[in-house]
Structure to design on (129 residues):
């Protein structure tokens, strides 16, 4: 089992920044791909960003490209999401996930929620206008 715990959410004004963290514990593996999803009230969960086990490959939703940066520190078993130029439409609960079946660089990074088998409890991000 892998446990994921998000932190770093909060209330910020439009144009501001936040950095989310996702700490992994348990049977972690550096081969896992990891990612962030978000869910706004009354809406489905949306893909935000994903990162390979080495951190060398990343993928982003079009809505956050150029504003958000995903990274990971495997020595600390922690993944990050730096969010800049935040907009009110970024308001959501942000979840981190791990794909333990990720097969490596020959395969695309997982962007579907169904590909992830471990999830954190979520952290609320609220952006005021």
């Amino acid at each position: 089992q892998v446990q994921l715990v998000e932190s770093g959410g909060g209330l910020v004004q439009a144009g501001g920044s936040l950095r989310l963290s996702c700490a992994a514990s348990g049977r972690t593996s550096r081969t896992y791909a990891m990612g962030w999803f978000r869910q706004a009230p009354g809406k489905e969960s949306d893909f935000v960003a994903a990162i390979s086990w080495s951190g060398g490959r990343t993928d982003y939703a079009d809505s956050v490209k150029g504003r958000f940066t995903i990274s990971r520190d495997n020595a600390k078993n922690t993944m990050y999401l730096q969010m800049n130029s935040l907009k009110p439409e970024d308001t959501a609960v942000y979840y981190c996930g791990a794909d333990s079946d990720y097969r490596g660089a020959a395969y695309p990074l997982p962007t579907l929620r169904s590909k992830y088998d471990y999830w954190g409890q979520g952290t609320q991000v609220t952006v005021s206008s």
